[in-house]
Amino acid sequence: MTKLLISKITFLIFLLMVSTAVSTAAQVSLGVDAMNRYVWRGFDFGDSPSIQPELNYTNGGFEVGVWGAFATNGNPAGQEISPWVAYTAGTDAGDFTFIATDYTFPGPGGTWPHDSDSHAIELGLGYEGFINAFAGVFVYGDDDNSMYVELGYDFRSVGIFAGFSPYESAEYGTDGFGLINVGLSYDYDMTITPDFDLGMTSSLVWNPESELLHLVFGISL
Questions:
Q1: CB-based contacts of 41: which residues, under 8 Å, 6+ apart?
Q2: Which of 105, 108, 209, 218 is 20 to 30 Å apart from 183, CA to CA?
Q3: Using CA atoms, how far apart are residues 108 and 31, in angstroms rounded to an integer?
């Protein structure tokens, strides 16, 4: 049995377990973002404007969805289709979310590949409360089992964040501990009609490890 098959079976078992704990209030949502760049954890993918659609199904604390990124210049580095599944448990101390994501990079013509060079599965744990926190580790498709940790704080529409890789990782370009994703963000909803708001977001992102600075802007529909 291959590692990919084992990872997919684990993914499905998690899906079945959390689905038994959800409520009957189900909701399907569809959205799309138009971004000037696809910047993820301090790195620019595709060097191009990016269209990023998302389809989600929510039922109680359970959520499953698929997110994509498509570089408008056709750069393969900016193409991604990533399914994910998550479960959120609300507590008096804040919300805790377990999430499993299958980062998938389509081949030529949008083909869906099935090899370790095109898939990377990450398991993560997030927290939202007096601060925001996330820790994720790749369990498939990454020889280094790279880990990413991020801490953040939101004040109204402004957020600050800092993310790092705690040990050597080719994925994040670090030889040991490395700070790779530091910045601030601002979100704003522009009212177009009484029934429609246009979401706008902007982030200033600095990657100290690669010494790159990114200014990201986008709108959400």
A1: 148, 150, 163, 172, 180, 181
A2: 105
A3: 25
φ/ψ region of 101 (left if φ > 0, alpha if ψ in -120 to 50, else beta) reads: beta
Q: Measured between alpha carbons, how far is 4 from 10 in angstroms, rounded to an integer?
A: 10
Q: What is the pTM for the complete model shown?
A: 0.86
Residue 183 has pLDDT above 90, yes or no: yes
pLDDT tens, residue by residue, 118-127: 889 999 999 9
Listed residue (202, 199, 164) closest to 185, CA to CA: 202
Domain regions of the chain by residue span: 3-156
